[in-house]
Amino acid sequence: MTLNGNHTRTEKLLLEAARVFNSTLEYEELIAIVLRLVLKAVDAEIALVFRIDHHRTDMKIRMLKAGEEDVSVFEHELGQGVVGWVARYRESAIINDPENDPRIDPEFAQAGEYEVRSMITVPLIGRGQMIGVVEAINASGGEFTEEDLDILIGLNNQIAVAIDNAHLYREVSREASERRALYEVGKKLASTLKLEELVEEILNSLKQVIDFDAGGIFLLDPDTAEMKSIRAIGYDPSRMGHVHLKIGQGLVGHVMKSGEPEIVPNVKEDSRYCEARSETMSEIVVPMKINGKSLGVVTLESDEINAYDSRTLGLLEAFASQAAVSVERAQLYESILASRELKAQLNVAKEIQQSFIPQKQPNIKGYDITGTNIPSGQVGGDYFDFIDIVEGHLGIAIADVSGKGIPAALIMASFRASLIAEIRNNYAIRTICSKVNSLLCESLEPGNFVTAVYGVLNFKNHILTFVNCGHNEPILMRADGSIEYLSEGGPLLGVTTEGLYEERPVLIQPGDIAVFYTDGVTEVFDENEEQFGMERLENVMRENRHRSASEIQKAILDAVTPFSATEQLPDDLTMVVLKRV
What we know:
Elements: H1 9-21, H2 27-42, E1 44-51, E2 58-65, E3 72-77, H3 81-89, E4 93-95, H4 106-112, E5 119-126, E6 129-139, H5 146-190, H6 195-209, E7 214-221, E8 226-233, H7 237-240, E9 244-246, H8 250-258, E10 262-264, E11 282-290, E12 293-302, H9 310-338, H10 342-356, E13 367-374, E14 382-388, E15 393-401, H11 405-425, H12 429-443, E16 450-458, E17 463-469, E18 475-477, E19 483-485, E20 489-490, E21 504-507, E22 513-517, H13 519-522, H14 533-543, H15 549-563, E23 573-580
Parallel strand pairs: 17-20
Antiparallel strand pairs: 1-2, 1-6, 2-3, 4-5, 5-6, 7-8, 7-12, 8-9, 10-11, 11-12, 13-23, 14-15, 15-16, 16-17, 17-21, 18-19, 18-22, 22-23
Helix pairs in contact: 1-2, 1-5, 2-5, 5-6, 5-9, 5-12, 6-9, 9-10, 9-11, 10-11, 11-12
């Protein structure tokens, strides 16, 4: 058969393949096109395609029967049947006597609900790599021929490249959707302090990016040491109710106890599964952690076996990370509201704020680092932190909130939650500050704002990279006593979404000292209304630069405290002293 007397039947199919494959990048739509073309190319009754997925331990086969419109899907164990054999050995196969071929797996045909009379199977090789397998079943003429094999081999490269491109497009689209979802959920979680609203939002947002049939959030009740179901969807209310599990009980309790996530491909084979719904086949459970402490877990269940993989785990851990800081904030906020008297409220707020402050100083070879926070009242709006990021890198943050008391402490809690969540989702410091600014603009009332400096110390290469968000300029004093000011960055946080932030790296040399501080250090006035100021601070640093970081910090405090005209410091005082020794 020829086309215009020039093209063979194979050439005609190749031209048609080039045309139809370029018509879409949508994966499922392309798979249907591939299957229709295979049916037509070798005049078969059934066409199958299997793309190798290194995240799966089984084969997900897509099948189309001649005369039908919809592609069906069935799963089988990896490596079984002729499809598995071809995928393993990368060799084509023509089988016209299936009863006498040991590679034929009767269960494979049963899973697809078809009978095999003849079969032709070819590996898909694209860009030198094994992409998958295409199979045609039951030739209309009775048997498949070498000519049929040549036709499918001729189509092989185009099919492989088209499927690979569509898969890449699907992955890129999915990753973009996941990033958008993470950003959106960050904004939404920062906008509420109500725990019920918060967990509802977490599950609704998860549903947009992870396919699950049931899911729930369990939080630890420290008073009873039990896991409480705070919110669950997809379960029978009469069976679920408000489930309480002891730590270590069930998969939820096990993950809470171990602090490590669990992916269970088949819950029917795992004795730890507490059956809340009979349809569930697989489950993933991830702890919600903050500062190494588990607040609770997120659990998702699917009616499919082996529904979750490492990609799902990474995404769910990112959600759980954001959820943990927001849940902690909401829990602490509810604790404050539950206090009936102002004194009790202040005590709770003080405990909250103290829990934000590092309980120990970083122990880094070659560096001496310390920090302190002294609120002017029971609670304040200052904050500093040392944040472990990746090996060899330490995050250093200092911030000051407009206002005082409980409102300032709550804003600071919101800032801290946003900062930690964005640090875990981003690497660029300027991006972290920009996103934290956007989140605060969404949640803060007009007139409220936060000033901050966030930097990352690479203590292997001795580089401090920082962004100053409208904060007091940290002082970098070199070993010879010369001064630099760490001023680069951008506007204060929570005022305008149009603010741009830039980061600056500085080399920290032996003997160099950096002091981060809030205005409670420099903006202290004596009885003559003279300000303590930058010059006095620099003089104290210079006079004590050969001492340890803690001794420098003490010297600054000893200079500032008696300088104040009032017995009590008028503002919160916070500082971090870093010295390379």
